[in-house]
Amino acid sequence: MFKPLILLAVATLALYSCQSQKQIQETDRESYRPNYHFSPEKNWINDPNGLVYLDGEYHMFYQYNPYGNEWGHMSWGHAVSTDLIQWEHLPIALEEFSNADSTETMIFSGSAVVDRDNTSGFFETGKKDGIVAIFTSHVHSNNEGLRQHQSLGYSHDKGRTWKLYDKNPVLDLNMKDFRDPNVFWYAPEQKWIMSVVKPQEYLAQFYSSKDLKSWTLLSEFGKKGDTTKIWECPALFEIPVEGTQEKKWILTISSGHREKNYLAMQYFVGDFDGKTFRAQPQEEILFIDEGKDFYAGIPFNNLPDSQQNPIMIGWVNDWEYANKIPTEKFRGSMSIPRALSLKSTPNGYRLLQEPIDLKPIYKDEVSFDGLEVSGAETLDFTGDSYLLTAEITMGSAELVEIQLLKSGEEASILSYDTGTEMLSFDRRKSGHTSFSDRFPSVEKIKVPLQNGQLKLKVLVDRAMVEIFANGGAQALTDMVFPKKSEGKILLSAEGGKAVFSRLNIVELK
């Protein structure tokens, strides 16, 4: 008579154990949700879309799957912010729809503009809050792509509700791959300019329009720089040159990486006359970010006059493992918004990137200024969401390391080799790495010292690290997935002594 009770007890214990294990796994995986970087409440996201500012609100639309945490059913999710840090989730803006011929149309990547002068005719004259979305309508059958063309949607109420233009598409070349329109207002000629790509041909095309509906081809640019991956998500925009009154034009393209089959973003600097973009000569491929996890970035449209620098947000993930990363309720997140400018160098213009000011979310702050390191030293700090700022005088040290998110043997290691001038980030022992053999990696960037110093700004946020070196002359973004949560920081120097003349860590709430 006792055997059924024993079996019941064992079964109950086993069930409890399974439930507890599932809860632990879910808690663990939800702990990878960034604290101060944008992520969706649930499900899959990729490219940022339609970044636009209007009446005190920054709008971020993004590629979103309403039905799961892997890629599919692409629609536009929507969030707004007043400070680019704290975001309010809003209902889906534009959702995948069915066609009369039993095909489906996904809402692929694109941009959004404020049509202040009602050039489109979608709004009442004098209204100042009309937003028009320009996106790729991706027609497919059972996820097999059939054709892509450019279409419009519009909102009368600051992006809260949307209608599709009843005469879509507005630009159709009868191609399977033709996508990612990025549109801006070109004031000198009072017209809209669209950048869009033929991905398989490594070509960006530029079109003009007076009404956002009828588009005329102006010119093409392409088959330069990186062509190891298809071209995606173009953006053409004006950008200031540091320390001058000069402005140049920059064309950004999402494509391949220095390492085979990974993703990255490249850029070209030059001039645009309203018709043709002419790039400066360049002997090397110029990448926006040297990490594996910054892609599909675009700038905001319609920024206030007080904001002179373009602001870009990128997708933090990589298609080599994007559907496999060990999060559960959501997959994918966005970078911290970055203010962009150019610096004139003997080799031509080069991009500078500066993360936006995070002071509104500062919590506790600790400094270790004047710290001399000749061996290994663990700092009196633990945490997983913070901003670390350092100025390091290398002195006689041959190698300096900063081990982040350290728990026992587990760490994400940022190091600098003075002999090779290489800044490296090693995530091979950062925690969970076995979900994809493409994930464990070491990233390297050549970063010459400035007057014997290396300056770093490092944003750590649970499952991602964004590194900006020497005033944003180089950037590197990588995801990491720690198994443990001690969150220590260890400093070390080999071959001699290094001095952290400034080392500041701010916990971010």
Overview of this protein structure:
The longest helix has 28 residues, at 3-30. Strands 25, 26, 28, 33, 34, 35 and 37 form a seven-stranded antiparallel β-sheet that branches. Strands 5, 6, 7, 8, 9 and 10 form a six-stranded antiparallel β-sheet that branches. The chain has a six-stranded antiparallel β-sheet with strand order 27-36-29-30-31-32, with no helix packed on it. The protein is built from one helix and 37 strands. It has 509 residues and is mainly beta.
Q: Helix amount, in percent?
A: under 10%
Low-confidence stretches: 1-28
* Radius of gyration, taken over Cα atoms and rounded to an integer in Å: 24 Å
Count of DSSP H/I helices: 1
Roughly how many Å apart are the termini? 57 Å
Main sheet makeup: 7 strands, antiparallel
In round numbers, the mean pLDDT is 93
- Briefly note the structural class of the backbone: mainly beta
Report the count of strand segments: 37
Strand content: over 45%
Shape: globular
